[in-house]
Amino acid sequence: MALATIAGTQVHVDDEGFLTEYDEWTEGLAQVLAAQIAIELTEPHWKAIHFLREDFKQHGETATIRRITTVGGIPTKDLFTLFPKQPAKKMAYIAGLPKPRGCV
Amino acid sequence: MTTEVAPAPVPKFDQGDVGRRLAIICSKGNLDMAYPGLVLANAALGEGVEVHLFFTFWGFDMITKKTMAHLKFTPLGNTATHMPQGLGGIPGMTAMATNMLRKQIASIGVPDVPEFLDQISASGGHLWACRMSADMMHVGKEDLRDDVEAIINASDFIEMTAGAQLLFI
Predict the structure, then answer these.
(1) Residue B84, Cα to own-chain centre: how many angstroms?
(2) Distance between CA atoms of A34 and B77, rounded to whole angstroms?
(3) DSSP code of B83?
(4) Is there a contact between A4 and B7 (Cβ–Cβ < 8 Å)?
(5) Where are the alpha helices (DSSP H) in B71-162?
(6) ipTM value of the model?
(7) Is B69 in contact with B114 (CB distance < 8 Å)?
(8) Do B123 and A36 touch (CB under 8 A)?
(9) Which residues in A1-100 belong to E strands, given as ranges?
(10) Would the CB atoms of B13 and A89 count as touching at under 8 Å?
């Protein structure tokens, strides 16, 4: 859990660059993180990010694609469009959460 | 005294295994043997891998509308249940074991087979049915899930999966 800077802000990140402190995340930071992986955040992106943040706060785990679809109500197809190729990991990165632990 | 803090690294998304393809042959119709292919297909799709699932022989039960929600599990011949093998043959045992397995799978948030295939389809996975199995079981395209793209023969499959990694289950 090293200290690093993202857009001039000091935060704690893991070896890959994922934020490790839930409370260090801000929406402004999310925009920078998204831009770094070539994603421009629009309203549907925010809906997914906010669901992940809220769900993590309540359950202490990063939601999987299936959970975002069944509990968060965002169709799987849309998630693959919004966060291409690796939606679960990209969403977790932007939301300042660890990668999902579950298999499904 | 101030210490220099380095910029955070950026994860390397989209850079590993560009163009990686995975083909999974599903040949079993037992409930427990349906899951390995589904779990791996789903995981591969989530990593940006192109996935093709080919259903053949008993694996047809996974994509046939009439059977896909009713796959069963039997302890018979499966020593990993650690039950006396004779018990497996008792009437009602298959139904009981199937029920238990279904509950266990649901309890960890994993969907049943039809719903799992819905998710795989929605994630961009391709479903194919085997021509020989269809002919043998007198099953047509209309008997299969709507997201099965086509009934194809073995040569088509071999041609289509050139260069792909292959899993036989």
Answers:
(1) 29
(2) 51
(3) S
(4) yes
(5) 93-107, 113-122, 131-136, 154-160
(6) 0.87
(7) yes
(8) no
(9) 2-6, 9-13
(10) yes
B9:A16 CB<8 A: yes
In eight-state DSSP terms, residue A98 is P
Which two tokens mark A66? 């299936």
- B140 near A CB under 8 A: no
Tens-digit pLDDT profile for residues A59-99: 999 999 999 999 999 999 999 999 999 999 999 999 999 99
Give pLDDT, residue B1.
47
Q: For domain B21-71+111-168, which architecture applies?
A: 3-Layer(aba) Sandwich (3.40)
Amino acid at B123: S
**B18 close contact with A: CB closer than 8 A:** no
- DSSP letter (8 states) at residue B159: H
Domain ranges of chain A: 2-94
Could you tell me where the DSSP H helices lie in chain B? 31-46, 93-107, 113-122, 131-136, 154-160
H/E stretch holding B50 reads strand B50-55
d(CA A69, CA B122): 11
The 10s digit of each residue's pLDDT in B121-141 is 999 999 999 999 999 999 999
| Residue A41 tokens, joined | 């955040």
